[in-house]
Design goal:
- 2 copies of one chain form a homodimer.
- By secondary structure, chain A is of the alpha+beta class.
- Helix content of chain A is 33%, strand content 28%.
- In chain A, strands 1, 2, 3, 4, 5, 6, 7 and 8 form an 8-stranded mixed β-sheet that branches. A 5-stranded mixed β-sheet of chain A has the order 11-10-12-9-13.
- In chain A, α2 links the parallel β3 and β4.
- At the A-B interface, α8, α9 and α11 of A face α8, α9 and α11 of B.
Amino acid sequence: MTSLPQGFRAHVANVGIKDDTDDFVVIAADRPCVAAGLFTKSRFSGCSVIVSREAVANQRLQAMVVISKNANVATGTEGMANAREVTEAVARLVGAEANDILIASTGVIGRQYPMPALRAHLSSPSLPFDVVDAEATARAIMTTDTHPKVASATVGTSTIVGIAKGVGMIEPDMATLITLFFTDAALEPAVLEAMFRRVIDRTFNAVSIDTDTSTSDTAAIMASGVAGPVDTTEFEAGLYEVALALTLMVARDGEGATKLLTVTVNHARDGAQAKRVAKAIVNSPLVKTAVHGADPNWGRVAMAIGKCSDDHDIDAEKVTIRFGDQEVYPSRVNDAGLAALSHYMTGENVLIAVDLAIAEGTFTVYGCDLSDGYVRINADYTT
Amino acid sequence: MTSLPQGFRAHVANVGIKDDTDDFVVIAADRPCVAAGLFTKSRFSGCSVIVSREAVANQRLQAMVVISKNANVATGTEGMANAREVTEAVARLVGAEANDILIASTGVIGRQYPMPALRAHLSSPSLPFDVVDAEATARAIMTTDTHPKVASATVGTSTIVGIAKGVGMIEPDMATLITLFFTDAALEPAVLEAMFRRVIDRTFNAVSIDTDTSTSDTAAIMASGVAGPVDTTEFEAGLYEVALALTLMVARDGEGATKLLTVTVNHARDGAQAKRVAKAIVNSPLVKTAVHGADPNWGRVAMAIGKCSDDHDIDAEKVTIRFGDQEVYPSRVNDAGLAALSHYMTGENVLIAVDLAIAEGTFTVYGCDLSDGYVRINADYTT
């Protein structure tokens, strides 16, 4: 069992938002923590995102509440008032200020929270904060994920525990990503925020399931400080390790996914160009269907690179493409190589590596294949 | 039967590139024509695109040659030499200069033309230019299109005939689009080029099947002048009508498509913003699968609009979303409306209209639903 770090406890419950599975989670610290948060950039950001962005602006949080199966998006002023009512009630119950509560929601768009049920639950004089098992906590924020997602690392005397949900959908509506991190390390707010941004950029911001961006994506971290100071370089490495492990779980559990697709671009002009090219490849429906069909179709990878039409320094004559360890362009694969390659493509892990031969920029992104399962999950549903 | 305009004749043949269907077409004029061409912006542009871009730079063409089932992309210096050898041979056969020949190819990437077969065919002292039927010409440039695509219009004493192939795939490799227009109207080169650019921007550049961009996309027009001068405003309207008809045929015939999806964005800041938002919607896999499942899931449309995160003037509180004539956001649909809407969504034509309430920009794009058929066509193939 992975336990939450020192100083954190969780309350897990079913408040009847949709069915009888757990749909309400609060992870609380004994006192205010140093915190950082990153949110969707959507122009249709949900009420939870708006409230939480405000809450984390002062780099301090004492609790995070997650409501599942209702996104509270496109719900107007009533939705905003409901989000604030929930965070105020949770603040009262954990003995914190309302502005120290982060809220994250995921689920159907355009429907109000079932406030009578939420009010009934939150009107108790106290709630049991009896869960320290990270897996039980992760299970309670799941929607259509096929398994709970937990990862942890130890850095010096401190522990980092991360949980995530996604990228299964809810109802099926949207592949919302929520990922929350807890640590007992003591860190300066500015150091934690900068580090969190760097780590998320190379992990959760590098995962693509279907190019669609949720209105509710939320990533946040709380550091209780109970375990005292840590070496920040080591801590960042540990945080990266935890975030990457969760990212890979999310990509593998993508809607209808049967394979993890990793795309690395090396020797780009800079990291931004490497990321742009890698995303063009990992998001290409033609590349994703080829990977699903175990077809080492490098022509589609060339096509996807070619889509970066503003990158005038990309020269088709200098590009190298590999599937796994096997170069497929410009060198051509012989028959023996092709047999080995076809076998490689049937595995659960497919790596596509591109070298642009320009400069030192590098980036890796994570995604999955595109299957009939994806279409069926997303089409066989009527509002 | 739609005939090619005065002054044009076609040669159609099988040279055995892949099977026994026609794979080689030359449409030639009696003398050099005023011409314009637009090509893919891919960084992996094919040899045909490179040669043709040079040829049309002087706004003059005398013939267009289309080779099917081999893209001549990523074939290096040998591929470039082959493309030039073909255009030189065609020039000799039609009595034109090599630089007045446009070449377009579509098919497998990374394989050389079967030059012995092409040389054998092109070494005849003359080739029969015995086809004037536009449909027979359009059929000969098809790959996996389910039907030939022809449209025509009459403007004054002149005729405009357009043919197109796509967006079925070849082999399945790439949804290459080739669309060629012929007219006997007399037009100034600069006038024709500017007009052609405006028309293609609102038609073929507004179609999206799967966000993937071919290495070989080619649109070109030749004006023989035989019918004399025309009113240019009327001519542009006629050209737009022909190009739009072909665009809708292409979108409807998209890989695995069962529905034509039209997305119109009104009252945007400008046309560019309207196009950006419309493309975000028409390309969203979650919107496309919802349309496939006949689900009026406006939450996914809101999500797709929200993806335009740099458009800070888009205000979720001011946006209106319609499916067909029915507003679905912010007004909610009642039960009677929902029944009508569900019926509407089962039809072959689905319109999604968005009003951004900013200014006067407007744009319409055309696409299709995302079906299991798309995945099967693109995955069930091994190189």
